[in-house]
């Protein structure tokens, strides 16, 4: 075999050997293995409200997904506040019922009548009636007084009993009291109402009239907005009764990751 031919064969063998070594090394690099530690992220979650925990739906170290409910607070007070504010917002937007307006209209009419009565004073017929009552009371006082004088004179002669005399005296005293009452009533009617009574009746009338106008116009825009805002606030607080897992996924639940508002949470025995 010639020398040239031998050199060609040696070069070809070297190329094949080099190719085999390179392929083996590349294959070994693709299958590299190593050791390490994979840690899950602990993310703080919490609620803007505080209170007693009602349910804990996960355990320590459980993997949780975004939006998964972790903890539920006792929501009785929140639910009651939400229902109250919802009713207030609906009533504010709906306005007052016809029967409420009718009731306010009747109250305003009654207050107006009382004010006009006190402003104008008592009617002449009322004064005339009081004068007649006083005249009748005077006549009764005179009659009973005469009866007592007669029984007193007879009692001194032992012609009537002491009981009869006492009865006549009692009748006279009752008549005197009735006469005084009738005179006081007549004086009151003739004098009329005091200025402070008239002023009070006038104020009550204006208040009733203002309340009627308020009901007839309905609630103001700002009052409706305020009621809606109160409802939205209670609705947001009600949503906070549940603590949910945030992003990223595959987080792990930990009691140390529970954050709440400034009010402390009284944890249930599950912790």
What does this structure look like?
By secondary structure, this protein is mainly α. The protein is built from seven helices and seven strands. The chain has helices at 3-30, 76-94, 98-120, 124-156, 162-191, 195-217, 221-239, and strands at residues 45-46, 53-56, 63-64, 69-73, 242-244, 251-252, 258-259. The strands form three sheets. Strands 2-4-5 form a three-stranded antiparallel β-sheet, with no helix packed on it. Helix 2 runs antiparallel to helix 7 (221-239) and helix 3 packs antiparallel against helix 6.
β-sheet strand percentage: 5-15%
Bulk shape: elongated
Rounded average pLDDT: 77
Which class of secondary structure composition applies to the elements? mainly alpha
Strand order of the largest sheet: 2-4-5
Largest sheet report = 3 strands, antiparallel
The number of helical runs is: 7
What is the straight-line distance between the termini? 90 Å
Give Rg in angstroms: 50 Å
Order of helices and strands: HEEEEHHHHHHEEE
Q: How many strands?
A: 7
Low-pLDDT stretches: 259-271
Helix content: 55-70%
């Amino acid at each position: 075999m010639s020398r040239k031919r031998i050199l060609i064969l040696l070069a070809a063998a070297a190329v094949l050997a080099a190719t085999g070594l390179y392929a083996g090394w590349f294959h070994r690099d693709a299958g590299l293995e190593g050791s390490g530690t994979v840690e899950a992220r602990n993310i703080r979650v919490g609620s803007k409200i505080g209170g007693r925990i009602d349910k804990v739906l996960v355990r320590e170290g459980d993997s949780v997904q975004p939006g998964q409910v972790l903890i539920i607070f006792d929501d009785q007070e929140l639910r009651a506040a939400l229902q109250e504010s919802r009713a207030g917002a609906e009533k504010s937007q709906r306005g007052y019922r016809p029967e409420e307006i009718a009731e306010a209209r009747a109250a305003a009419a009654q207050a107006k009548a009382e004010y006009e009565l006190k402003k104008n004073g008592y009617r002449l017929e009322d004064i005339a009636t009081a004068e007649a009552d006083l005249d009748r009371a005077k006549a009764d006082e005179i009659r009973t007084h005469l009866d007592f004088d007669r029984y007193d004179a007879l009692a001194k002669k032992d012609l009537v009993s002491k009981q009869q005399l006492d009865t006549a005296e009692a009748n006279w005293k009752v008549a005197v009291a009735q006469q005084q009452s009738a005179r006081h009533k007549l004086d009151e009617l003739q004098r009329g109402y005091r200025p402070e009574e008239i002023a009070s009746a006038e104020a009550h009338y204006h208040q009733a009239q203002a309340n009627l106008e308020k009901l007839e116009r309905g609630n103001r825009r700002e009052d409706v907005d305020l009621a809606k805002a109160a409802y939205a606030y209670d609705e947001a607080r009600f949503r906070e009764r549940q603590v949910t897992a945030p992003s990223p996924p595959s987080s792990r639940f930990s009691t140390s990751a529970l954050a709440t508002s400034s009010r402390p949470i009284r944890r249930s025995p599950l912790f």
